[in-house]
Amino acid sequence: MAIKPELLEIFACPACRAKIELKADGSGLKCVACHRVYPVRDEIPVFIIEEATIEEIPAVG
Questions:
Q1: 17: Cβ–Cβ under 8 A, 6 or more apart, which residues?
Q2: Is the torsion defined by CA of 14, 15, 20, 25 positive or negative?
Q3: φ, ψ (nearest 5 deg) of residue 55
Q4: pTM, whole model, 2 decimals?
Q5: What percentage of the chain has pLDDT greater than the value 90?
Q6: Is-contact 12 20, C-beta < 8 A?
Q7: CATH annotation of 5-54
Q8: How far is the C-alpha of 6 from the C-alpha of 49, rounded, in Å?
Q9: Half-sphere exposure for 57 (CA within 13 Å, toward CB)
Q10: Which residue blocks in 1-61 are alpha helix, DSSP H?
Q11: DSSP for 20-37, written as a single string
């Protein structure tokens, strides 16, 4: 998946307006605040809240 870095800088989570980052494995775009992961289909981000999944926060300790 090739999403330009300058686009990632302007993308924001539709649910909470926080910053969006590309997941390490490239499988989607993840919100840094609410942990929603938005899918990317045919190299197009799908910023529909109902289509996002929520990743669990890893336990510390």
A1: none
A2: negative
A3: -80, 140
A4: 0.85
A5: 66
A6: yes
A7: 2.20.25.10
A8: 22
A9: 8
A10: 5-10
A11: EEE-TTSSEEEETTT-EE
